[in-house]
Design a protein that fits this description.
The protein has 4 helices and 11 strands; from the N terminus they run ββββαββββαββαβα. By secondary structure, it is α+β, with helices and mostly antiparallel strands. The protein has 2 domains: 6-121 and 178-205, Mog1/PsbP, alpha/beta/alpha sandwich (Protein Transport Mog1p, Chain A); 125-174, no CATH class. The longest helix has 15 residues, at 183-197.
Length: 214
């Protein structure tokens, strides 16, 4: 795969070469970033012009894999529609890994930029600090019978979601600046950087667009 198909501002990134056909970098914070090319029609069973359809499709996929939804959106990057996703996975024994991606689907192929940001050292600090603040302000509470926090879960698209990997209030974007080294903050930084700086080769951009036929 040519590095010229999709490029971005690599300032501070360390190019690591190729691995099984993917082009690999380390981000300025040391996380992994890969550019993948899939030479087959995308298996996205959703209308990209209908964000509810896109979110429902990706939620079904990640729920089956035990992941939690942080973000699912469509964005315009260098004139092309991309799907921006950010999910979280449980680490063992504790902590979270955040998986961010920009997917560029075309009719016959797709390119995907994937970032993987793992939690290291002491885990749960962001959750604890934010939860303490929100409890002090009364925004969340504690159920005396179950000893569980109320008002803590914060799925961005479906307030009825209550699974073990549901997004919580500490994972909102406004807390990233307070915890710049947290893996979620790092993942969002990478996605934002890519969204701003990706350039797509004109030959790629001229290919037939992805259209879901339902």
């Amino acid at each position: 795969m040519s590095r010229l198909a999709i490029t971005f501002d690599e300032t501070g990134f360390e190019h690591q070469g190729e691995d099984n056909g993917a082009i690999i970098w380390f981000t300025p914070k040391g996380d992994g970033l890969g550019l993948f090319h899939y030479p087959i029609p995308p298996n996205i069973h959703a209308d990209l012009s209908n964000i509810d359809s896109v979110r429902a499709f990706y939620r079904r996929i990640v729920s089956q894999s035990g992941l939690g939804v942080i973000e699912i959106d469509t964005v315009l990057v260098d004139g092309c529609t991309a799907v921006r996703t950010l999910f979280k996975a449980a680490q063992q024994p504790t902590g979270r890994t955040y998986l961010g991606a920009l997917t560029f689907p075309f009719r016959d192929f797709s390119y995907v930029l994937k970032a993987q940001c793992e939690e290291h050292g002491m885990t749960g600090v962001r959750d604890t600090v934010v939860a303490t603040r929100l409890m002090a302000s009364g925004e969340i509470g504690l159920d005396a019978e179950s000893d569980r926090m109320t008002g803590w879960l914060d799925d961005p698209y479906d307030p009825s979601e209550t699974g073990p990997m549901t997004r919580n209030k500490s994972e909102r974007p406004e807390y990233d600046a307070l915890f710049p080294d947290h893996p979620l903050s790092r993942a969002r930084w990478v996605l934002n950087h890519l969204e701003r700086t990706v350039a797509i080769n004109e030959t790629i951009k001229s290919q037939p667009a992805f259209v879901w036929r339902g």
